[in-house]
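Entry:
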Amino acid sequence: MKYSIKIVFSVVLFSFLYVACAQKAAGLNGTLKNAENKDIVLSRLDGKFQPAEVGRTKADGKGSFFIPMKDGFKEGLYKADFGDATTYLVLSTKDKSINIDGDVSELSKFGYKITGSETGIEFHSKMNAIIANQANMTPELAQKEVESCKDPLVQMALSNFLFRGMADFLPLYEKIYKNLQSSYAQSEYTKAYGEIIEQIKQMKDLQKNTSAIAVGQAAPEISLPDPQGKEIALSSLKGKVVLLDFWASWCGPCRRVNPHVVEIYQKYKDKGFTVYSVSLDGVDNRTKSKMDDAMYQTQLNAGKQAWLEAIKKDNLMWPTHVSELKKWDTASAKTYGVNSIPRTFLIGKDGKIAAMNLTPDQIESEIAKLL
């Protein structure tokens, strides 16, 4: 009987030690040539690719190291720094013990061996092949490499490294986003990737609209409310020379140039010149979506108040001040391709664009010609 108890106790002890060792083994380990005594830092990149350290250690005299991950790995993109050398890993929650072996000098080329992670192996294999075949790697071939990946996280990481948000690959990004929604619906990466796609779309629209606005064409109509809620149309000023000015109370460069615009207005207002100011104050749609109705209304009122105070403080005495109070989601800003402020358009008496993006001195010179 005592013998049996001893055996059972030994089995239980062995099982306990096995589990403890298995838990301890969860993490990143390996041996790298030329990594002897180097500091090693493992960071996880968030959805916006900003790194946050998750572990660090120092390699021993043989280049061996171990960074434990007590709570396991979260899915995502990781950055591993070995002294001055860096490599990247795509890991999943399934991963436990990940091993890297090779030479520090080959880290940036992904010229090492990795085991213990399916996503890590796939990402490593793709990057290694792409870098090795860099001379013959066309955008079309690179895109095929991304599309052939099994895991959407690997697709996401590859697309970021290869294309870095270039708008030409928008259809590919949308495919990857659909795959992320299917496999990683709750992941921060899925949400962030969707936001990146929306930003690319907006930038494409701005570029399209910017190229569509040209000197000599009729100024696209704008009709927006003034501070009292009265709609004022840009076309109502036809017959005058008009400076269409996109600005905002929070825009430092706008506020600095305002005194010069006031001087020009005072000098030419009695000769047929005026200013039509479109403010990009307020709350954009993305910010609004994160607020309840009460908070949104509070922020909207604050934006309007800032706009009114800036008009008063800068002595912007012309009567045509309008705003949709939607910041960069202002429809007329998109129509005119405004992606930075201050942005100005000089419109002749005939309602056509006469000049764009002028300095105060240039504005005055052009006004004198038009009048």
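The first strand starts at residue 27 and ends at 33.
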